[in-house]
Design brief:
The protein has 494 residues and is mainly alpha-helical. The protein contains 22 helices and five strands. The termini are far apart.
Length: 494
Amino acid sequence: MPSKTSGSDAACRPVIVWFRNDLRIADNQALNAACKVAAGGGGTVIPLYILDDAAAGEWKPGGAARWWLHNSLQALGSALGQFGSHLTLRRGPAVEALQSLADETGAATIFCARRYEPWAIRQERDCKVALERSGLELKRFGGTLLIEPERLETKSGGPYRVYTPFWRGLCQAIAGERPIPPPAEIPVPRRWPRSEKLASWGLLPSKPDWASGFSDHWEPGEKGAHVRLDRFLESAAANYTQDRNRPDLTATSRLSPHLAHGEISPRLIWWRVANARDRDPANADGLQTFLKELVWREFSQHLLFHFPHIPEKPFRPQFENFAWRHDPAALTSWQRGMTGYPIVDAGMRELWQTGWMHNRVRMIVASFLVKHLLIPWQAGERWFWDALVDADLGNNAASWQWVAGSGADAAPYFRIFNPVTQAEKFDPEGNYIRRWIPELANAPLSAVHRPMAIGRAASCGTDSLLVSDSYPLPIVDHAAARARALAAFAELKE
């Protein structure tokens, strides 16, 4: 077992870089620091990824995120290969994997990026204690957030609970910070340690292969992330403020899964977007709006760090007494995109077929679940966790609680989206709905937007003659559901 060594001794020994949700080479603080230490002392760098599902427990990667993780690890391995390096794969408890690899290689130090999920914080603490007992050192670095949670506090002390002052404080705190370029070289060992085969981890679905269409929409990996950012800056940024709520348009960055897996850093995105904003006044408004959306992600991560209960319990304790309904049949209809409300069903089908959903539609489908159906937000959070390629614990929890009215700086519960008017406003020609609901491909626009114009002739009139009978009637009436939700909220207040 390795023992403590002098500084000069340790510098000559391998440094393990434990990749976590920072699956990239550019602007990777842990990797960059390890390369500097190794190059300065004649040592080497051993990149490592550990699949530790037991530590994550119920929040281990869901099905769609596992598909992305498989492809992202392949991409990272290829990128490291261009430096002559190699990604070592281990599965099991992180502390055991780290100690075993240190024994095999003679490494004395492990570098890694911080994570902020409650389970990951416990994992880091346990690893640090156990490794120190073995004479090993664990060094943690930032880089998955724009700013570390401890650095940003309100004037009175403590964490922010409201977005707008958080935005102002963050902008002041990170002014002038630049991303780190990729290392010029990654020192490699003469012999590589044992590595598991990625295919043996079973991250990809097989029978059935429900992710077969994902690759038509995504290119996981650092290269794909930079392509997305370039494309956004070239084509969508100028009209982002006006078009970001239109799911029928290609008007958003779609960087969220790349951010969730750390294939691109938020600091690099901020730097490039802020520079583009300052150079191009004509596009400044859209780019500024995009930066504010990026900081919503940051705000969610800070909430998770300071209030680790939010994935399971409401941020506002009074909502623990809300009169939710247990309705498995309605939940299943929502999950399958068979509610009878076209904009809701289009979003849920887009999610199933691509592992992603437009943010405006996420708000619509979430509002429908928790307010039209009175099903707890945790049920929607769990479904998104399994179905989203960009599943992120902080974002997922904070966003669901925002819609439910129980979160920090949340929309009030009585703000209930009308799915019909939302569809008319944000999918005015019905193109988004028609794309994801083929039953409505040839339906008139009134039938595409309004659920009561869809179905059998006896109940819905002549429009039904142009619509497939396979599309369901609405499972709930909007007006009645709205009244029921408001009554439940009134009861909670009393």
